[in-house]
Amino acid sequence: MSSPIKPTFKTEIIPIGLILIAFVASFYFYANFPDQVPTHWNFQGTADNYSNKTFGAFFFPWLILAMYVMFIIFPNLDPKKDRYQQFTKVYHLFKNTLILVMVSIYFISSLIGMGYNLPISILIPGIIGLLFIILGNYMGKIKRNWFMGIRTPWTLSNEEVWNKTHRLGGKIFIAMGVIMLAGSFIPNESLFGLIFIIGVLITALVPIIYSYRLYKKIEKNKQ
After folding, report:
1. Confidence band of 196 (pLDDT split at 50, 70, 90)
2. Same domain, 12 and 46
3. Do residue 32 and residue 136 come from a single domain?
């Protein structure tokens, strides 16, 4: 049986190329890393966790590869696999954008591990902000499935709840992306951290609450 997402040379050349670049670069980074490299930073852009050079060089490429394989395999396991044909272009856009973001973060963190003084407190929030804006613009086009999107018991149970929740979720994602882009330039890192946490809570909780209330309203109207 053919794949519901129909991967082709055109759709896979970008993510596969990015993954190959990351794997090739990992040997260069390994050869040039110190024994301990930073792998986590706080909101001030200060490294607060370190790992050995092997982990720092090779973990992220393998993680990205695993993510890519997941994007290829999981639609075939989805009970609603027929729905993917209705948003194939959006699916590939999400996949390729996420791979690009992960590879970008890998290169930024690795260059910092080699001693380059990059403004990670601006670059990473900026990249994540752009990611949220891109995903938010296309979230409303995702059709009901069990793999990607805002999957709550109520969105998965009702097509109208799914569609309306994703349109709302897309707007929230865009707003969160704008906050990330603007917040990365806030000089007060503690304030940015607070804004970020509040934004994440809103992004996570509002669609869940909205889908529940909308589902209950629709079910009540049926009675």
Report:
1. confident
2. yes
3. no
Q: Are residues 100 and 143 in the same domain?
A: no
DSSP letter string, 152-200: -TTTTT-HHHHHHHHHHHHHHHHHHHHHHHHHTT-S-HHHHHHHHHHHH
- If 0-12 CB within 10 Å is exposed, 13-18 middle and 19+ buried, where does residue 220 land? exposed
Classify 5 as helix, strand or coil. Answer: coil
Among 85, 100, 96, smallest CA distance to 142 is for 85
Q: Are residues 3 and 112 in the same domain?
A: yes
Q: What is the pTM of this model?
A: 0.90
Beta strands in the chain (DSSP E): 36-41, 47-52
Do 104 and 123 belong together in one domain?
Answer: no
49 contacts 55 by C-beta, under 8 angstroms: no
Beta-sheet pairing, 47-52 with 36-41: antiparallel
- What does the pLDDT look like over 54-107, one tens digit per residue? 999 999 999 999 999 999 999 999 988 899 999 999 999 999 999 999 999 999
